[in-house]
Structure formats: structure tokens, C-alpha cells
# Entry
Amino acid sequence: AVVSTQSTGAENERYFYTMFLVFCQCIINALFAKGILLITDSTADKTPKHISFICGVTYVGAMLASNASLKWVNYPTQVLGKSCKPIPVMILGVFLAGKRYNLVKYLSVMLIVIGVALFMYKDGKSDGSGFSFGSGEMLLLTSLTLDGLTGVSQEKMRGYGMKAHRMMLMMNLSALVVMAMSLLATGEVWEAIAFCTRHPEIVPEIITFGFASALGQNFIFITVSEFGPLMCSIMTTTRKFFTILGSVVLFGNALATRQWIGTAIVFAGLILNDRFGKTVKVEKP
# Structure
């Protein structure tokens, strides 16, 4: 947040080069994963390289499409759209990765998504134009589809026995290829380097952000490796929900009736998933 919102230098310039920031983030993520692998894992990886590359491409594509959607939709709309992430992860996992779930699993995921959407929705004045499906909504749909394809790739990588940090390394290396091409195509790399040259004090902020990202990805990929991408998507979807709910408990912030209903639905979905939503079958590649 400091990197993108805080003015820097006497000219009060702000850092707006998000692709370059993601590029640096992927470099640090890859170095972190490689360091862990050098210490803990010397086994050969048997996963086909094209699966890792596809995973990296869809991961970056989902992120870029989601960020680009903000040019046409507001942030609350984006949050609501991305709260549906477990749905494409589940559906595409069934059709493309051979996953099988019982009916309770489908119900519990739907309850979680609906509950989070109710909780995160912000009331506002309607402009009277009704619902319209434009560029922003198309980008959100694209981002969700790519999220689902990322889940499919991760399931296939799990099927080959790929462990968490090797998955993290391969995905970030693949993402680096895509980001490098994007930076060169748009010319953003030269603008970002010029900014960092004018304001070298921003470099430690970028590095700190990258290490924070690497630590977060460390736990994300452990979750994916051990429990699967669907469980990971449920955890990341409910993250903001639990953050806001924690502020209610700790600081006494008030919730609307709709948010309390959403809270009850989320917990009902989580309990249902924990008790009865076990995966029935996983098809090996």
C-alpha cells in the first residue's frame, strides 16, 4: 500500500507501475522458493513443463484482468466478482482435472460465496441504469475463468507429486516470462526504472513488498499442495470476511443486518464443508 499510495520526493510523484511491481514480486517469490528447495528438496521434478507454464500464464492473466477491470467497475464490484472464485475453480476442476465432489460440497461452496457476497456488498444509490454487462464485467469474467484454469493446472501438478515450493518456483518463473514480455511491449519497464532512479528510496519498499508476498505465497502453495486449489480459494475468499469480522470483535465496529445474515451463511457453509464436504474422487493424470 505504501508503494502505490504514498507520494515520493519533492515533486510528490506517486508509484503507478503495477506490472513492474508484479515483475519484481515474481522475482523475489521465485528466489524464495528456490532457496527453500535448495535446503529441503533435491528430488527431480517429473511434471511436464507446459503444465507449469500454463499455470503461470493463467495466474498472471487473472491478476492483470482483475486489475484492469477497475477502469470500468468500482472496487466493491471487483471484490464481489472475485468472491465467486471458488465456483470456477470447482467447475473447471470437475470438467478438466477429473475432480469429483459430493452434492454437499457444491452446496457448501455456494453458501460460502453467497455469504461473502452479502457481507462484502456495499449499499449505495442506484443510478437507475440497471445492470449492464460491459468491458469491466467481461474482464472480471475472464479473470474468474483464468482462476479456474489455474486451479486445473495446480491439480495436475499435484497429480505428478509436485510439492509446494517447486510449484511456487515454476509458476513464478513462468509468470516472469509473461510479465517481461508485457513490460517490454508497453514500455513500462523503462518508466519504472527511471522512477526508481529518481527516487531510490522506493527500492527498499518494493523489496519489502516482495518478501511479504513471498511469505504469503509460501503458505498459499503449502495449502494448494496439501489440500488442493479449491480449499485454497475458499480460504482466500473468506480472508477479507474474517478480517472485517475480527475488527467487529476487537474494535466494536457495527455490522448491518445484511452482514450478520451473510456471516451466518458463511459459517453454515464452512461447517457443512468441514463435516460433510469431503472429496469423493480425484482422477490421476
